[in-house]
Specification:
Blueprint (H helix, E strand, L loop, with lengths): L19 E5 L18 H14 L3 E4 L8 H11 L4 E6 L6 H14 L5 E4 L5 H5 L7 H20 L4 E4 L4 E5 L12 E4 L3 H10 L2 E5 L3 H17 L7 E6 L2 E2 L3 H20 L16 H12 L2 E2 L3 E2 L1 H5 L8 E4 L1 H14 L1 E6 L4 H26 L5 H4 L6 H8 L4
Parallel strand pairs: 1-2, 1-14, 2-3, 3-4, 4-7, 7-8, 8-9, 9-14, 10-13
Antiparallel strand pairs: 5-6, 11-12, 12-13
Helix pairs in contact: 1-12, 2-3, 3-5, 5-6, 6-7, 11-12
């Protein structure tokens, strides 16, 4: 049990006035709970998945990228044609696509989807994974390359005539004018927890992404990004994107029973090296985000209202892995805690991927949106956070520790 802060009617000054929801698209029914051998894309499943996201009210879907995964551009184009409103986020590594070509591809996607394209630039957190596609640049220099990549992308979308470029990482002559986006430049997101990531993100990104962390730690990181943006003379700050793996059930007690079952299955999967992230199992993660997640897990399993770190511990923090555990009301209140700290983009993806995505759309997203609509209409906070306390209340703490020695 954690001491409860005040949840009075005043809306915190740091609160984002609105929130949009992101999910990661899955290509087949294989999960960390139940790995299933697959050729990669189960088209019937994929169609059902993205249709469920659209019907569930999600705003964006992330199309991930890895050396052994489907191509994110091609999958994003499919999402664009299978949906009417969902915005595809292309995960792109600068080492895999020359920036003028990347600009063309993204602008083409943006035209095909009538302005829905977003790009998430991945500088690369693992030397071993980068080397699989011939990238041997040192990690700190990869962010410098990302910075130059952003500059070329934006010039490619906006220059009215041909332009040349002679930089540290890219050189070309008389490119353009490039193929234009549908209406406006495409939003650019980056993430990472290294000093280099913060510098590039604060100076240039439209969106800066984080994995789920304890509230006070995340707020400090947001302030760090904003300070860099101010120092760079930016008129606006990057939007803050935070990612969780919620585990929900009808009540907090049932959610904790489910969470204990989930983590045992996920741990067994990782022990068997039966899931694609297992190539990193048993090693010390190179990326700072995973190091932070493991440090939080080592310090405590449970933080704030509902943040659970054991899922990160059993997976070696291989990707976004911290959970929010509780009833839909408790998890929605926990999401609002992060909105109150400044997050305006919230990514939620489950362990039972399709079923969880459907449940979030039915039971969690409406509660968050109802609260934000109440705030917009009244200028006051609603009662959800004050009445569904999660770990700020004694009952929840008993459910969380049930069965433990």
């Amino acid at each position: 049990m954690t001491a409860a802060p005040e949840f009075g009617p005043a809306i915190p000054e740091t609160a984002a006035p609105e929130v949009e929801f992101i999910s990661l698209s899955h290509l087949n029914p294989s999960t960390e709970l139940n790995p299933i051998p697959s050729r990669g894309i189960d088209l019937k499943y994929f169609r059902r998945y993205v249709r469920s996201l659209e019907e569930g009210g999600y705003d964006y879907t992330l199309l991930p990228y890895g050396s052994n995964s489907a191509d994110s551009f091609v999958v994003a184009s499919a999402v664009g044609q299978l949906t009417e409103r969902l915005r595809p986020i292309v995960a792109l590594r600068p080492n895999t696509t020359f920036p003028t070509v990347g600009a063309q591809k993204l602008a083409t996607l943006d035209q095909l989807t009538e302005g829905r394209a977003v790009v998430h630039l991945i500088s690369g957190g693992s030397d071993a994974e980068q080397a699989r596609q011939g990238d041997y640049l040192a990690k700190e220099r990869r962010y410098a390359r990302t910075s130059e990549y952003i500059d070329v992308l934006r010039r490619s979308w906006t220059e009215p005539g041909p332009f040349s470029h002679d930089g540290e990482f890219y050189k070309f002559d008389e490119f353009g004018p490039g193929f234009a986006p549908y209406e406006a430049p495409i939003p650019i997101s980056i993430g990472g927890q290294s000093a280099e990531a913060f510098q590039v993100g604060g100076e240039k990104a439209d969106i800066f992404s984080f994995w789920g962390e304890p509230l006070d730690d995340l707020r400090s990181e947001i302030e760090r990004v904003n300070a860099i943006a101010r120092a760079a003379g930016r008129a606006t700050r990057p939007r803050i994107w935070v990612t969780f793996r919620p585990i929900i059930a009808q009540t907090d007690r049932l959610a904790w029973e489910k969470a204990r079952d989930y983590v045992a299955k996920v741990a067994a999967t990782f022990e068997r090296a039966a899931y694609h992230a297992q190539q990193y199992r048993g090693t010390t993660p190179q990326n700072v985000g995973s190091q932070r997640a493991l440090a939080f897990a080592d310090r405590s399993e449970l933080y704030d209202r509902a943040l659970w770190t054991k899922t990160a511990a059993v997976t070696n923090a291989a990707g976004a892995s911290t959970a929010l555990v509780g009833s839909p009301e408790t998890v929605a209140a926990a999401i609002l805690d992060y909105v109150d700290r400044g997050a305006s983009l919230v990514s939620i993806r489950g362990y039972d991927t399709l079923a969880d995505a459907v449940d979030y759309g039915r039971y969690v997203l409406p509660l968050v949106r109802e609260e934000l609509a109440h705030r917009a209409a009244t200028g006051r906070r609603g009662t959800l956070q004050a009445t569904h306390l999660g770990n700020y209340g004694a009952d929840y703490a008993q459910h969380a520790t049930a069965g433990q020695p």
